[in-house]
Design brief:
By secondary structure, this protein is mainly α. About 75% of the residues lie in helices and about 0% in strands. The chain has one domain (about 5-190). The chain is elongated, with a radius of gyration of 24 Å.
Length: about 190
């Protein structure tokens, strides 16, 4: 299946067991909705009951609620940016380590195809993490999965190199990366992609 839009890409990824959490997909929308409801209820309550006397009117209460909501949205964005930056820095450092490993002489390290397999697994896990955290569009994540799958099926000795690594979770990869690798190797994955 070739994804032509976001929804098709999301469905293809979901069929492979890759999805975003409810919080990532709908949390920001729900939060904005709650701020709007709180603002409307606050405006109504202040205008009807005057809990603080005539010193605070509905407009002042509405401004306070919207201001607090804006602050909380900004705080959430700041935390998300820190998380994304941390993920980016981790993969930058991993790239440096991979480049250093590749500069070793043939006598110093194993088969270059194994090193290539590790690098492609790193790329696959990066795509999965970025998508699941909401930092990558479904179309781009699906492209990353398809690229890895093309390596499995089209690059001579690549699948053998990945197989020889054994349980990739023991090499520091996430369980989701291992699960996706197993699904890509199954015959059913070919029809999903």
């Amino acid at each position: 299946m070739f994804a032509t839009n976001r929804r098709q890409a999301e469905m293809a990824l979901k069929n492979l067991g890759i999805s975003q959490s409810w919080r990532v997909r709908y949390g920001p929308l729900l939060f904005v909705l709650l701020v709007v409801v709180a603002a409307v209820v606050g405006l109504w309550a202040v205008e009807k009951y005057h809990p603080w006397g005539n010193d605070i009117n509905g407009t002042n209460a509405l401004t306070a609620v919207v201001g607090l909501g804006a602050f909380l949205i900004g705080y959430n964005q700041w935390r998300s940016a820190k998380q994304e930056t941390s993920l980016e820095r981790y993969y930058e450092r991993l790239k440096i380590a991979n480049e250093a490993r590749n500069s070793l002489t043939d006598a110093d390290h194993p088969d270059p195809m194994h090193m290539y397999a590790f690098t492609e697994l790193d790329n696959l896990e990066y795509v999965l993490q970025k998508y699941q955290l909401g930092y990558m569009a479904a179309e781009h994540a699906l492209r990353g999965v398809k690229t890895f799958n093309s390596r499995l099926t089209g690059v001579r000795r690549f699948d053998d190199a990945v197989n020889s690594l054994g349980d990739v979770v023991n090499h520091g990869y996430q369980q989701g990366t291992w699960d996706l690798l197993q699904r890509l190797r199954s015959a059913g994955a070919k029809s999903i992609l």
